[in-house]
Amino acid sequence: MTSQSSNLKGNEGGYEDHFAEGDEEVEGHEVEDEGLEGGRGARRSGVMGRMVGGDKGRSFVGWSDGWGVLLWREIGRARHGLPSGTDFRYSLTGGGTSGLVVATRLSENPEIQVLVLEAGGNHLENPQINIPALWPSLLGTELDWAFKTVPQSELGNRTIGLPGGRLLGGSSAINAQAFIAASKVGLDAWKELGNEGWDWDFMEPYYKKCHTVEIPSDKLRKELGLNHLTSSNNPGSDGPIQTSYPPKMDAVIEAWIDTFNNLKYEMSENAFSGSSVGDFVNNSIVNGITKERSYSANAYFKPVQNRYNLHLVTDALAEKIILDKASGEAVAKGVKVTIKGVEHIFQAGKEVIVAAGALNSPKILELSGIGNAKLLSSLGIDVYVENSNVGENSQDHTSSGMSFEVIDEIQTLDPLNLQEPKVIAAAMSAYQTEKTGPFAGAAISSFAYMPVPDFQTLKGKAELEHLLLTHEPLKESVTTEFARSVLSSADKSSACYFVYAAHGNFESDASSAKNITISHESGNFLTIACELGYSLSCSETSRTVIMWFYSSKHTLNRP
């Protein structure tokens, strides 16, 4: 969003940033201890600023008397002064998977001031995030938005949970770390639906640019079926996200490869070639050297967090974008956020960039007056830009699976999930001393994109046609015809399969990712899970997500 306002200025004398750990007085300031860890307050000319968030390394910058704008900067160990007349040329709502990438790239220009507003906290040093196997412990905590659908009439009135990272790094900080290539057919469909520049040919170089692949030894490459992976045919480059493959061949991976080879569905090409049909051993966002999660916060933001022109405010919940139509067109003037229960407005410079995720981005737009005019008016929201597509056509993967008990020699994650003390102690010792063991690896390494072979016979095609006619979506969308075409194709993947090395809870009460990973079954299990790639029905997130904002209920509607 473009803004015509570019006059974000400080108090007389400009913004000053002189606080360091242990300072009791700073020239020109009367310091008062606010009682927050790592936080200091300052009073000058009757204008007070106070530390928010409680994380060490944050420093006072200022409070503008004229606009009531609270400015904070996440500066780590460095202490930089903010220049007088600061103009945040770019303000990003959301410091997650994509927001930090954009902010990092924009701040490469030293002449541009970039502000990131993140609803969650900074957890860069949190071992629950950094240790790969601990990701299930993050789900359902304060680091997870823990969205829920409204009751689904077609699912026995169950509600379905959808996780989302509420912290610096977003969902890349809490996911299961599987680094799976998108399919060419899926991305090309975005362009065909009117999104110019979002096809495979345009996006593929950026997939390559964002990550680095640790190439296994020649012996391991051959065992894992990765002969195509060479230094000259590398799907990655020297990108910030560090990815790695399993450190050794095991019985599960071997059985997975053999099974799909026997079915004639082995993938002989690089999975990032766009030809996504068949099985492959996937890499994960685990640094092959440190054996820690590699995600947007520690890969993109952390190395450049001391840039004097890159500013971060955590625990800042974006309420809406301040819009003005005095010129006839809606122009973004700033962002209204809530920090520790107090509302603040950050004035915009040139652009406000919304990067708050698939569910929160439309929420922010609609609360700002951008969306379906009839809906917004019914909720008492002033309409600035009418766009009936906002909050519509959301899709997610429907998941199911089956768990099989395996022989004792197969190492699974069940003992860890059941919190067996001796197993946990041994695993932690192996991780801390050698960076090996179950804590060091990602949960998913065997993957496959597949069509539905049964639909390719004459009988199967008739069954598919019958299914499509008798189970039409409750709400037709622009993606419905595309989903139908993929289902009937022999060379396009309509679903994916993967192995999760533990018991999966797919009972009727397991309506969230967290519950699926929680099992009380004793024993050693593997789960083969299946996810639908392209749903015939789509969500609309509008009304209930807006009402969630007012009522603190994380719900959305999936017709």
Description:
23% of the residues lie in helices and 22% in strands. It is α/β, with parallel strands linked by helices. The protein has a domain at 30-123 and 298-355: FAD/NAD(P)-binding domain (3-Layer(bba) Sandwich). The strands form ten sheets. The chain has a five-stranded antiparallel β-sheet with strand order 13-24-25-26-23, with helices on one face. A four-stranded parallel β-sheet has the order 15-7-6-19. The longest helix is centred in the C-terminal third of the chain and has 14 residues, at 421-434. Residues 2-85 and 551-559 have low confidence and may be disordered.
First-to-last CA distance: 30 Å
Q: Remind me, CATH topology of one domain?
A: FAD/NAD(P)-binding domain
Query: How much is the average pLDDT?
Result: 80
Kindly provide the radius of gyration, computed on alpha-carbon positions and rounded to a whole number of angstroms.
25 Å
Which structural class matches the secondary elements? Answer: alpha/beta
Strand order of the largest sheet: 13-24-25-26-23
Quaternary structure state of the chains depicted = single chain
Topology:
Blueprint: E1 30-32, E2 41-44, E3 47-49, E4 58-64, E5 69-74, E6 88-93, H1 99-106, E7 113-117, H2 127-130, E8 147-149, E9 161-162, E10 178-179, H3 184-192, H4 200-210, E11 211-213, H5 218-223, E12 241-243, H6 251-262, E13 278-281, E14 283-284, H7 296-301, E15 310-313, E16 316-324, E17 331-339, E18 342-347, E19 351-354, H8 357-367, E20 370-371, H9 373-378, E21 385-386, E22 392-394, E23 399-405, H10 414-417, H11 421-434, E24 446-450, H12 458-470, H13 480-487, E25 495-500, H14 513-517, E26 525-532, E27 539-540, H15 542-551, E28 555-556
Helix pairs in contact: 8-15
